[in-house]
Amino acid sequence: MRISAIAVDDEPLALQLVIGYIEKTPWLELAGSFDNPVDAMDFVEEHNVDLVFVDIQMPDLNGIEFTRSVKRSPKVIFTTAYDKYAIEGFKLDIVDYLLKPFSYEEFLKAVNKARRLIMLEKGTADKIESSNEFLFLKSEYKIRRIDFNDILYIEGLKDYVKVYLMDQAKPVMSLTTLKLLESKLPASKFMRVHRSFIVNLEKVDTIERGRIIFGKTYIPVGEQYKEKFQGFLDRNFLV
Q: Of 58, 7, 71, 65, whose CA–CA distance to 34 is shortest?
């Protein structure tokens, strides 16, 4: 499977380096290169792009703002001369970041990681079928029917998820991503409250100090999800 990629960097030499590395990699396809992140954003919105290499420090729109603003969700690898952005990249759920100057070996390690994630998402897209009340999920060489009403919460752990169900001590594990699974769940019933957790809103009955409690499990509400979760509470709060 070929993966379409674009490179975004306002430094000509840095941009040419990434272009050269992309063209050197047989299963990568250069879809475009840009010295302006605004033009790159327009391109991503109009074309099917799997992977974006983007510099962080650029005028008008930096790489972090670019990643936050793009409506589609390609995989992103930051290229930067500053390692201080690693935590910010982690929050944005990027694949990796390459610290300039980086070698082809380092580049290849990062893109192989992206490739695994892209293949996983594309490969499992046809393994999850959903309805208004349930979905089928592949788990341990079997296909399990998961009723939405039975789900308490879902935990994302890198390349797989754990689905915690009512009256079952052991979660259902599946090789997929939290983001893909989220797209199959009804937004009226489920909400992502943390980069690693989705909860069934109908099962939320105790909240303490910004944490949702399911038995002995405490699920934190992440900073970027607090406003949305507070909206849910306000709509259902009896004064």
A: 7
Range(s) of the chain covered by CATH 3.40.50.2300:
3-124
3-124: CATH architecture: 3-Layer(aba) Sandwich (3.40)
Give 192-214 pLDDT, tens digit per residue.
Answer: 999 999 999 999 999 998 899 99
Helix (H) or strand (E) holding 39: helix 37-46
Structure tokens at 70: 């793009």
Structural contact between residues 211 and 183, judged by C-beta atoms closer than 8 angstroms? no
Q: How far apart are CA 112 and CA 54, in angstroms?
A: 17
98 contacts: CB under 8 Å, gap ≥ 6: 53, 77, 78, 79, 80, 106, 107, 110
- Residues 90-97: contacts with CB within 8 Å, 24+ apart? 91/195, 91/224, 92/64, 92/67, 92/68, 93/179, 93/195, 94/67, 95/51
Angle between helices 12-24 and 104-124 (to 10 degrees): 60
More confident site: 141 or 182: 182
Task: In whole angstroms, give the CA distance from residue 194 to residue 155.
Answer: 9
CATH class of 129-235: mainly beta
Q: How far apart are CA 163 and CA 150, in angstroms?
A: 10
Question: Contact, 44 vs 6, CB < 8 A?
Answer: yes
